[in-house]
């Protein structure tokens, strides 16, 4: 991956997708579909306005995250900006130099309108801007899988951002890196009482799971990295990089841990950690080896 000082980043937001997905994340599965008619009829209705406010997207968090990879050379957001729900964001987006692409509904709910227009623009931009190094796709629809694959074939580093519980696994796997919107710095995660916790990858405090998230991935990665290096102990940073390549959606923060070291420490039955100077080393627990 190019150094951040040299990297040039393009960002594409399927804004309708992210707004609807976050609404469902905050208020429960299929909440937007249930409230759609009420939102369209009167978004200023006190009850609806309160629900929309609780599910507000932090535009700055998304753009700042994209900027962490390098210089933003273009940022586009695709939606029907005449819709009151989306119109609320126009001033924020314009203030962050985001190009607003208007999608006029040609059919019910303009299905696939953003998908097609966004994909066409991305491919055109890759040929128009040969120095473009990173493509950030903010969406969760599996329709973007071919686009992510094409970007990678053309030598771009593909970053996906989607809402936990509403993103197709195939899209996450097609990216070089994938992070949930929930895990971005500055984003306030919904509490378990607000959302359908079964759709969330975040560990609920005090709640036990029969299968710990990330455990199988960690064990496979430890075995593979040990075989690759022909060494029992492997570097923690290399192990994390491998896990991200194996599953771009992996994030210790999304699992409730502040650092990767905390994640490793929570699984002593799988991983043994030791420090050698400033280097942190990991090996498969002897009982599993």
Question: Care to describe what's here?
Answer:
With about 290 residues, the chain is of the alpha/beta class. It is about 40% helix and about 15% strand. The protein has twelve helices and nine strands. The protein has helices at about 15-25, 30-40, 45-55, 60-65, 85, 90-95, 115-130, 145-155, 170-175, 215-230, 235-245, 260-265, and strands spanning about 10-15, 70-80, 100, 135-140, 155-160, 175-180, 235, 270-275, 280-285. A six-stranded parallel β-sheet has the order 3-2-1-4-5-6, with helices on both faces. Strand 5 (about 155-160), helix 9 and strand 6 form a beta-alpha-beta unit. Helix 10 (about 215-230) packs across helix 11 (about 235-245). The longest helix is centred in the middle third of the chain and has 16 residues, at about 115-130. It starts with 7 loop residues before the first strand and ends in a 5-residue tail after the last strand. The relative contact order is 0.12.
In short:
The protein is α/β, with parallel strands linked by helices and about 290 residues long. The chain has helices at about 15-25, 30-40, 45-55, 60-65, 85, 90-95, 115-130, 145-155, 170-175, 215-230, 235-245, 260-265, and strands at about 10-15, 70-80, 100, 135-140, 155-160, 175-180, 235, 270-275, 280-285. The radius of gyration is 20 Å and the shape is globular.
Q: Over all CA atoms, what is the radius of gyration?
A: 20 Å
What is the strand arrangement across the widest sheet?
3-2-1-4-5-6
Structural class: alpha/beta
Q: What is the arithmetic mean of pLDDT?
A: 86
> Which geometry do the CA atoms define?
globular
Order of helices and strands: EHHHHEHHEHEHEHEHEHHEE
Largest sheet: 6 strands, parallel
Which band does the percent of strand residues land in?
15-25%
Instruction: Give the N-to-C terminal Cα separation.
Output: 33 Å
Number of strand segments: 9
Number of helices: 12
Q: Which regions contain 5 or more consecutive residues with pLDDT less than 50?
A: 196-210
Task: Assign a percent range to the helix content.
Answer: 25-40%
